[in-house]
Amino acid sequence: MDSTPKRPRFLVLRGGAIGDFVLTLPALRALRERWPDAHIELLGYPHVANLALACGLADHVDSLDRAGMARFFSLIPSFSEEQIEYIRSFDLIVSFLHDPGGVVQENLRAAGARQVIYGSPLVERGHAVDHLVKPLETLALYVSGENPRLEITATIRKQGAAWLAARGLETNAVAIHPGSGSPKKNWPVDRFAELARKLAAGGIAGPFFTWGEADEKTAETLQLTAGDIPFLTNCTLVELAAVFANCRAYVGNDSGITHIAAALGIPVVALFGPSDPDRWGPRGPNVKILRAQSRKMKDIELSEVLAALM
Fold first, then answer.
1. Crossing angle, helix 302-309 and helix 189-201, to 10 degrees?
2. Residues 6 or more apart from 92 whose CB is under 8 A from it?
3. What stretches in the chain show pLDDT beneath 70?
4. Local structure of 233: helix, strand or coil
5. Looking at residue 264, what is its pLDDT?
6. How far apart are CA 274 and CA 294, in angstroms?
7. What residue spans of the chain are helical by DSSP H?
8. What is the Rg, in whole angstroms, of the alpha carbon atoms belonging to the chain?
9. Contact, 50 vs 61, CB < 8 A?
10. What does the alpha-carbon distance between residue 290 and residue 128 come to, in Å, rounded to a whole number?
11. Which of 158, 198, 193, 152 is nearest to 176 (CA)?
12. What count of Cα atoms within 13 Å lies in the side-chain half-sphere of residue 105?
């Protein structure tokens, strides 16, 4: 008879945007550190969840859609044998899916889940990190004041260093991300352009811009006004993290990309206006949050941002 201890299998269900996922990293880390030999599987949005894979907090990532999780939201669910076998294979399922009526939890148990822990993705009080680790107290895991941490491998970090070196930015790179999920949360694009020009002209640092698909209009303006400042786009979040990990500093709005930078431990200047940093602000050992007292982003002065960087 094989006496080898069975490797625990955990399933974590997590949708949400980039920042939402990064703020869940302390919960994943708590599971990993308590059960280092466990197989931890993530169902979510792979382009985001792969960040956890890159830093060893997950062993496998798959899509919520591919796994057919929509069936678990049904009041009259119908599960395939394959789904039942899949759910029953886990010793623990932690769900951060929006489930106010408990339908998903009930259906997971009906499909054979051994233990289900639910954490609402909606944060009503306190910081999101503290809210998201709270459900793990059911497992006697008590996490307090933890920062999200992305500890990428040396190999991945080296790839980011190569991107910077190819552009002459290997010693003093400053990443600037001018976008976010809402125009109301964006510092004026001309201020970002002026910031980059001042950093480059003064020899203080080597700035470069990053942007994604949602930032195309901002990108067009920057390309016209920011001169020959380099830019990074059309990359995965893991590739982006690899570049950031080699940077001297980062400046950005309240966005998921800012949370990635903070989780890497580099100096971050985060610009806030209408959103609440006490609830959604990036956490990290080197984070400086500037919030406009008027809650209007245009009222954050360029001089304030430069001073925070210095």
1. 50
2. 8, 9, 10, 11, 114, 115, 117, 139
3. 1-5, 67, 213-214
4. coil
5. 97
6. 9
7. 18-22, 25-34, 46-54, 81-88, 103-110, 128-133, 154-165, 189-201, 216-225, 237-244, 256-263, 277-280, 302-309
8. 21
9. yes
10. 19
11. 193
12. 15
User: Whole-structure pTM over 0.85, yes or no?
Assistant: yes
Q: How far apart are CA 169 and CA 49, in angstroms?
A: 28
- Give the per-residue pLDDT at 214: 67
Q: Tokens in use for 55?
A: 């830093």
Six-digit token string for 216: 């195309």
Long-range contacts made by residues 89-93, C-beta under 8 angstroms, separation at least 24? Answer: 89/9, 90/9, 90/10, 90/11, 90/41, 90/114, 91/8, 91/9, 91/10, 91/115, 92/8, 92/9, 92/10, 92/11, 92/117, 92/139, 93/10, 93/11, 93/12, 93/13, 93/117
Can you give the pLDDT at residue 17? 93
Buried b (16+ CB within 10 A) or exposed e, 184-220: ebbbebebbbbbbebbbeeeebbbbbbbbeebeebbe
**Burial call 228-253: b when 16+ CB within 10 Å, e when fewer:** ebbebeeeebbbbbbbbbbbbbbbbb
- Say what the pLDDT of residue 93 is: 98
- The total number of residues written for the chain in this structure: 310
Secondary structure (DSSP) of 4-27: PPPPPEEEEE--S-HHHHHTTHHH
**CA torsion angle for 28, 63, 252, 290 (degrees, to 10)?**
-50
Cβ pair 238, 51 in contact under 8 A: yes
Structure tokens at 279: 């609830």
Spatial distance between the Cα atoms of 59 and 40, rounded to a whole number of angstroms: 5
- Residues 29, 130: Cα–Cα separation, whole Å: 13
